[in-house]
Amino acid sequence: MLNLTSLTEQSLLPGTKGLALTAPLLQKDLGAQAWNILNADTSFPVAILKDSALQHNLLWMKAFCASRNIVLAPHGKTTMSPQLFDMQLRNGAWGMTLANVNQMRVAQRFGVKRVIIANQLISKSDIHSALALLAEDEEFTFYAICDSIAGVNMLADAVHEAGLQRTLPLLVELGFAGGRTGCRSRQQALELARHIHRSPYLQLTGVEGYEGLLVGKNREQDLMQVKSFLQDMTAVCQQADREQLFDLPEIVISAGGSAYFDLVGEKFASEMKLSRPLLPVLRSGCYVTHDHGFYHGLVEEMHGRVTDLPAGGLRPALEVWSMVQSRPENDLAILTMGKRDASYDIDLPLPFATHRPGHASAPFALPAGCKIEKMNDQHAYLRLPKDSGLCQTLAVGDLIACGISHPCTTFDKWPLMLVVDDAYRVQSAINTLF
């Protein structure tokens, strides 16, 4: 669906992170090298994606959306990978969500035709760049979000000055007290919707919000707040429709991070009395690779409250492998991996397996007491249980596999990630363009 030729035909040069190249190599020829992570055929650390988990997650989310009669515009800022965008679109995604104009231009360059920009468009130069895309590519469209009359006026003036031959579709953003952007009340959102409707340069297309920040220590309270927020979104949508403020044949309502997308699906699938069809758009992005920590826990909770989710759950696809470079203490191993290689903003990496290169056996699971206790830029401190046999057997040169918590802040550390099969044979690669 997307044109990925410029990536597959590019030459990977010596020094490419994760690879131990001594001469240039076409990216499309990676699979022909017969490399295997377990044989230490790559450089370390190396970030990998397990293809079987990727494919499972893509189909799982497709089935979830179909069961709720909603569409998916996954947040591409999670991966910023055209290859993964392509997989998501081929598996039924309605469009992509991006965080800013530069990310949108990356997506459009590879052939994405429908985008939601999940931030306010404020910079004059960014607005000019975004509107230029609409003028250059008649098949491309994007939905901007807004939460203030000042912001709306900036967009209307820019469309007028650009002489754009089509109106700009806008989504009113609803927020909540103490949150990020977004109108702080239903009334404020409706006043903004009326203001957009009066502009000859803009189209009121729908209502948007983000419930994913409502994650605290009291999950019962979190869920109540999420449900209340979603109720506010639907109420704004219904009132705006009663006032005939929407300008297109269908009404877009969009929310859904990677934490509570079941609640979003449930709410948006419920019957709403509107004068025209409703298009509910889910924006979850982390599902495609999932993780071993933060989102794993939230999705486990989801399975506890929802009985009709697709089978198999979401599977962690992203792993970072490193090598033991030093054993300075009996219960300590220093790894060739640090803050430049794996996310640490929510949890430190989660070590789960080890392997000795050259051994035919499969990797074996690390005991529960193994823990990354801190990281420097290029080093991780793996603490071993004092009563574990690993204190005697773990050696310099052994491999350690880590899961991560929060995939977004691992992807932005890797311009290239290797795609492997279940035996850790390298099949191909994906690129990230942050």
Which secondary structure elements does this structure contain, and how are they paired or packed?
Elements: H1 5-8, E1 11-12, E2 25-26, E3 46-50, H2 51-68, E4 71-72, H3 82-90, E5 96-98, H4 101-110, E6 114-120, H5 124-136, E7 141-146, H6 149-162, E8 168-174, H7 186-198, E9 202-209, H8 219-242, E10 251-255, H9 261-269, E11 278-282, H10 294-305, E12 318-329, E13 332-335, E14 350-355, E15 364-365, E16 371-375, E17 380-383, H11 390-393, E18 399-403, H12 408-411, E19 416-420, E20 426-431
Would you write up a description of this structure?
Helix content is 31%, strand content 23%. It has 434 residues and is α/β, with parallel strands linked by helices. It has two domains: 5-50 and 316-431, D-serine dehydratase-like domain (Lyase, Ornithine Decarboxylase, Chain A, domain 1); 75-284, TIM Barrel, CATH 3.20.20. β14 and β15 (364-365) form a beta hairpin. α4 (101-110) packs parallel to α5 and α7 runs parallel beside α8. The longest helix has 24 residues, at 219-242. The radius of gyration is 23 Å and the shape is globular. 43% of the residues are buried.
